[in-house]
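tokens incoming
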């Protein structure tokens, strides 16, 4: 059954908490309205001596219903934004009402909440130009005031637990940035940290997490939240992305709304319920309404979005359309709401990169919110589904190579053509020669495939940095040599590619780049159609290539006129093939790969002919996630 999400921002989504209770992922109606049956906490105004500022400073303190000086409480320090003061939450967020109602529903651990003025200067009023540099600097100075003046005062005046496990900090906007900066920078003081719509004062992620291992062990909870329409989403997103990349458990809570108290009140409602209780990081991913924007979206596009369980939320406006579908291998019907937005949530989508199309009244078009990629014989949309273990093609702080776009004239086709060439880090700073991998795309794609969908440069950058692969040149050719510039799988097209490779591509590369010309320093690989080209040109020219990689491919069992001459050649040349080829690596995407049967039949024929090869499988079918993994593994075998 197709899962359709209507007005996702109005519907509660349920999930299982550690307590095995069902908890809505958004505050219910009336959560910020006084309830007569609810017992009330108390808000007091206090003054504390600040040695940091040199004056007495004000703060508000909320004590919970049933507060007793005979009991010790954990403490939440709740910070305001750049235009507010210690009363901003009280005026705009009604925290005392939200917390009272949560206590009445038995959803909150009893705690004291301190609402300070985060502008640590003598005149700390929110007046005049709040963006004045001196006032902005005062928000940074507040870290010292908080640690050395306010916290000691609270712990002297109130019956509070003084260990880090019972101390939390959170805030909105400027206060959200302060909370991340101060909380993550003082893990010996705070174990619970929340940034709501954090502002540009938020430190860059590398500065927020100077000791990732310490953060992993000491943080009880890191909460990062933002409204989907908030222009400050960048700062929350980058913090989330980095924390995810370095495996810091955290919650990234994206919700409907902008930069306002509707969002922040909901954040307080959700965040406060998690404090000072047992947490299960395995459930953190479930705390989101709207997931994260796909990395393949065009700049600033909010949809499609990746939801927990690798489901995808699509949403677009098409007021005049009669039917809208998403074709993601499986077709999904979108449902139109009263505001002319069409929406659907898919089933779980497998890892990595996938092409998709919009079908509007039956016409397949690219999604204007997505980057486009040449695939399926046309420009199509693409979506990247993250998964544990995808860091081998992540952008990392390692030396990076370059991808060159080179145009050359082909005497085989009588036309100007294009190839992409990856040069490894340090190529321009040395005179040494490099081995070369020639790598080929599949049918319906072109030379851009390995450079964009394949993430060749990132895979090689990371492997070279880890010393798992030899520095090498990678030549990404256009294998489309048939009529009209579109390849086919016939003998003539395969021979034409062989000529292009031998007579044009290799001489061009070796003339214009410092390429090692030794046979032992050349490799040829390709996926699908490119795998057939590798089988033809590589096997017939083992005097040129010492390594052959065949990804998701194999000679067709139902076309003996094409395959039998290949097998006859291999039979007659089995000895030289086995001698010359150091690694004949054949990989498939599991039984769901459309080339699986052809490949298995071909491997059986190789066994019969005595051709040595290595077989590998990585589940995922006939898709780019499989081929990226193939490149990752094959490249580590080369030029050893």
């Amino acid at each position: 059954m197709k899962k359709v999400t209507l007005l996702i921002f109005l519907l509660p989504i349920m999930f299982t908490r550690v307590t095995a209770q069902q908890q809505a992922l958004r505050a219910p109606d009336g959560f910020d309205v006084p309830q007569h049956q609810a017992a009330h906490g108390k808000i007091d105004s206090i003054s504390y001596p600040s040695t940091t500022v040199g004056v007495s400073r004000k703060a508000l303190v909320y004590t919970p219903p049933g507060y007793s000086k005979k009991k010790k409480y954990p403490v939440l320090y709740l910070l305001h934004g750049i235009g507010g003061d210690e009363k901003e939450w009280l005026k705009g967020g009604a925290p005392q009402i939200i917390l009272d109602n949560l206590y009445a529903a038995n959803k909150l651990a009893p705690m004291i909440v301190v609402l300070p003025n985060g502008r640590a200067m003598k005149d700390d009023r929110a007046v005049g130009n709040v963006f004045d540099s001196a006032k902005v600097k005062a928000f940074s100075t507040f870290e010292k005031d908080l640690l050395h003046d306010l916290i000691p005062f609270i712990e002297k005046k109130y019956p509070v637990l003084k260990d880090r496990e019972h101390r939390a900090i959170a805030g909105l906007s400027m206060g959200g940035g302060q909370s991340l900066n101060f909380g993550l920078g003082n893990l010996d003081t705070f174990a619970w940290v929340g940034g709501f719509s954090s502002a540009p004062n938020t430190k860059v992620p590398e500065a927020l997490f100077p000791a990732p291992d310490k953060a992993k062990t000491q943080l009880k909870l890191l909460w990062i939240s933002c409204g989907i329409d908030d222009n400050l989403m960048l700062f929350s997103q980058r913090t989330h992305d980095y924390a995810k990349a370095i495996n810091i458990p955290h919650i990234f809570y994206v919700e409907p709304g902008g930069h306002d108290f509707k969002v922040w009140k909901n954040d307080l409602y959700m965040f406060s319920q998690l404090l000072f209780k047992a947490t299960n990081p395995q459930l953190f991913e479930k705390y989101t309404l709207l997931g994260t924007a796909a990395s393949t979206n065009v700049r600033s596009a909010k949809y499609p979005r990746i939801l927990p369980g690798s489901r995808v939320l699509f949403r677009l406006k098409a007021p005049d359309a009669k039917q809208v579908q998403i074709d993601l291998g499986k077709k999904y019907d979108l449902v139109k709401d009263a505001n002319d937005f069409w929406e659907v949530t898919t089933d779980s989508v497998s890892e990595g990169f996938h092409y998709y199309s919009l079908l509007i009244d039956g016409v397949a078009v690219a999604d204007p919110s997505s980057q486009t990629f040449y695939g399926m014989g046309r420009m199509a949309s693409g979506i990247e589904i993250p998964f544990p273990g995808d860091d081998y093609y992540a952008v990392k702080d390692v030396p990076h190579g370059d991808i060159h776009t080179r145009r050359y004239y082909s005497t085989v086709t009588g036309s100007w053509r294009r190839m992409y060439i990856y040069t490894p880090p340090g190529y321009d700073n040395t005179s040494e020669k490099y081995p070369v991998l020639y790598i080929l795309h599949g049918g319906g794609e072109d030379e851009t495939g390995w450079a964009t969908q394949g993430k060749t440069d990132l895979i090689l950058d990371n492997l070279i940095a880890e010393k798992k692969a030899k520095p090498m040149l990678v030549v990404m050719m256009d294998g489309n040599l048939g009529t009209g510039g579109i390849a086919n799988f016939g003998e003539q097209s395969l021979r034409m590619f062989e000529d292009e490779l031998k007579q044009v591509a290799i001489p061009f590369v070796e003339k214009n780049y410092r390429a090692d010309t030794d046979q032992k320093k050349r490799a040829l690989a390709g996926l699908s159609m490119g795998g057939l080209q590798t089988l033809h040109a590589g096997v017939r020219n083992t005097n040129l290539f010492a390594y052959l990689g065949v990804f998701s491919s194999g000679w067709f069992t139902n076309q003996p006129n094409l395959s039998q001459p290949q097998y006859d050649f291999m039979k007659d040349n089995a000895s030289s093939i086995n001698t010359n080829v150091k690694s004949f690596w054949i990989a498939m995407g599991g039984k769901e790969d459309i080339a699986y049967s052809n490949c298995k039949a071909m491997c059986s024929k190789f066994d019969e002919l005595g051709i040595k090869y290595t077989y590998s499988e990585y589940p995922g079918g006939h898709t780019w996630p499989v081929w990226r993994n193939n490149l990752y593994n094959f490249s580590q075998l080369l030029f050893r």
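note: The longest strand covers residues 42-50.
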